[in-house]
Amino acid sequence: MTQALIVVDMQNGFCHPQGSLPAMGRGLPDIERAVRGCMEAVASAREADLPVVFTRHLYRPGYADAGPNFDLVGADLRAVGGLLAGSWDGDVIDELEVTGADLIVDKCRYDAFLNTSLDRLLRGMGVTRVTVCGVVTNVCVESTVRAAFMRDYGVELIADACAAATRPLHEAALEVISHYRFAEVVSLADGYRPGRVEAAA
Known about the structure:
The chain has a single domain (2-200), classed as Isochorismatase-like (Rossmann fold, 3-Layer(aba) Sandwich), CATH 3.40.50.850. Helix content is 37%, strand content 20%. The chain is globular, with a radius of gyration of 16 Å. Helix 4 (70-80) links the parallel strand 2 (52-57) and strand 3 (103-107). Helix 6 (137-150) packs parallel to helix 7 (167-179). The protein has helices spanning 12-15, 20-23, 31-47, 70-80, 118-124, 137-150, 167-179, 196-200, and strands at 2-8, 52-57, 103-107, 127-135, 154-163, 184-186.
């Protein structure tokens, strides 16, 4: 069994105080905890020599790839030019120190597997189990967890390395994911580290 860490959308646009969503009043109240958690998870995965995959939620100039439903949820993002490919807003935050050894998968839908190379990359590396962290818990994280489960990966979700717009939304997503066993919900605070089980196997 090979494990990989998927870090979902930890970009300036979501996580940095000057990012597009926080600037519009759509910041994530637990983002500092999520950043610390993702930093810890990434460090542990690298120490265990696990693949680290960063996803980025990006749109092309003009938002041509955003789709007809985008304005239902993203009209204000379009107005400020947020999360555009090639922009600082779309980059992974500096704290996670992306390296040339890491993999980056760009997407324009909540599900990181939809119309991307993610599944092919994981299969090509022999990955059968994924650990997921990042933002937003009840949107792109949950969508990616469900998609991984439906593709027959074993899935773990690091609860304290995620954040949502409100704590109730975060907790609701965790409850759904856990109840239906889309993923095993784990916690860094309880001692979970990516690669620990793999290394002991």
